[in-house]
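[Meeting: bench + compute handoff]

Bench side (C.D.) handed over the final construct sequence. Compute side (W.E.) agreed to return the predicted structure before the next meeting so the bench team could plan truncations. Sequence as handed over:
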Amino acid sequence: MATIASYDAHIEQLVDVAERLKAAFDEAGVDYRIVGGLAVFLHVRDRDPLAARTTRDVDVAVRRNDLEQIRAAAAGSGFEFRHAAGVDMLVDRESPSVRSAVHFVFLNEKVQPDYLEPVPAMPDAVRSTDGLLLGSVADLVTMKLTSFRLKDQVHIQDIDGVGLITDEMEQGLSSELRKRLEQVRAQR
């Protein structure tokens, strides 16, 4: 039972961080999309709670030109802005930890120079049952197939396993990303 309680506490902590971020960004008028593992978790959880697996931190897509607004909003919300190892992030001022960090990726920019595609523009957001703005499943699939680390492949399996990848989404992928999707599906 301690494991289940620990898992639940971690999820609550991640959602709490995301909700604090949402409140700060809403007040400052900063547009954002939660992406990465937490967004996958929330999309999958809403479809099939037992198929959702946790993640370590919170990843958020923002516009680079909003960084000054983000710094100001963060300061008033218990976060501290940091740039470390080439990553812009917010950490909890009271208990800075990788597990409570908010990592930023920038809309329309490649996360890594060797990535096939940039982070999508994400004009449309999806609101989770918690009220958080998430990247759409189509945008997350593009991002996960672009980075294509093992954990990203597992996230694709989770999204696909609950039927969230539609034929329309698949057809909207570049040929290279479709090949990667086929590769992930072949591993099942």
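W.E. noted at the follow-up: The two ends are 30 Å apart (CA to CA). C.D. will use this when planning the next construct.
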